[in-house]
Design goal:
Number of strands: 9
Radius of gyration: 16 Å
CATH class: Alpha Beta
Distance between the termini: 23 Å
Largest sheet: 5 strands, parallel
Strand order of the largest sheet: 5-6-7-8-9
Oligomer: single chain
Number of domains: 1
Number of helices: 9
Strand content: 5-15%
Shape: globular
Low-confidence stretches: none
């Protein structure tokens, strides 16, 4: 069970099922330490909000009933320049951290694995991204996971072990995802980097649930020492967030 989960989607994402308050109440029941709201960026089909939503998250208290509340976005890489669908002003002034990746049904035009990889590396080098979400799951937009992992390590961007793509009964590409995840973990080890675990939950019942990961940790070579969720102070320093 995760005590820190920074990849949560609310009804603002357009396809999730719970509100901010419902997540906070569930986090209290689970005795969690920290949660982060990361609704999908506005260029994804069906997202229910515009940039003001992300901007005004800063009005939510930083701590509620002892739980640290962080404000974020799961942004979309939208073009060949590696740009995101959220303004630089909101990134620097209003958000605690930025998660990003390619997503199907967003503004990005798939350019094939080689070009997609080059574009994502541009996004990593931009300094605007703190976490690459589900990089090992490449069904929608293919990338070279080894080159992406290496670029992220070299530019101090966290690679995410995404629970949503590790639920065998849901994901047809489960074995392919495991293979990509193993490659990602191997490169993170090579560079002595930690990774972040995110539930990518779209409802309160999966908040903090890392049980699918526990079954495969040995297979992918993931150790507890590699998981930055286990080190709250280090995580906050990584994200450049004042405690």
């Amino acid at each position: 069970m995760l005590k820190i989960d920074l990849h949560l989607h609310t009804i603002a994402s357009g396809h999730a099922h719970n509100t901010i308050l419902e997540y906070i109440n569930q986090a209290k029941k689970l005795k969690m330490k920290m949660i982060g709201f990361a609704d999908h960026g506005p260029s994804l089909d069906g997202v229910a909000v515009n940039e003001w939503y992300y901007q005004l998250q800063k009005r939510i208290p930083n701590t509620i009933d002892g739980i640290r509340i962080l404000k974020s976005i799961e942004a979309n890489i939208i073009n060949e320049k590696g740009e995101l669908d959220i303004s630089d002003k909101i990134i620097t002034e209003d958000l605690d951290y930025v998660i990003a990746n390619f997503h199907d049904r967003s503004a990005y035009n798939d350019l094939g694995e080689k070009r997609n990889t080059e574009v994502m590396i541009k996004a990593i080098k931009s300094g605007k991204i703190d976490i690459i979400s589900h990089p090992f799951a490449i069904k929608e937009v293919k990338i070279d996971i080894e080159k992406i992992s290496e670029a992220a390590c070299l530019h101090n961007v966290l690679l995410e072990v995404n629970i949503g793509y590790l639920i065998e009964r849901w994901i047809k590409e489960y074995q392919e995802n495991l293979l990509g995840l193993g490659k990602m973990i191997k490169i993170a080890k090579k560079y002595n980097k930690k990774v972040i675990i995110g539930s990518d939950t779209h409802n309160i019942w999966q908040l903090g649930d890392d049980s699918p990961l526990q079954k495969i940790k040995k297979i992918i070579g993931l150790t507890e020492k590699m998981i930055i969720n286990n080190y709250p102070k280090e995580l906050m320093r990584q994200l450049k967030i004042k405690e």
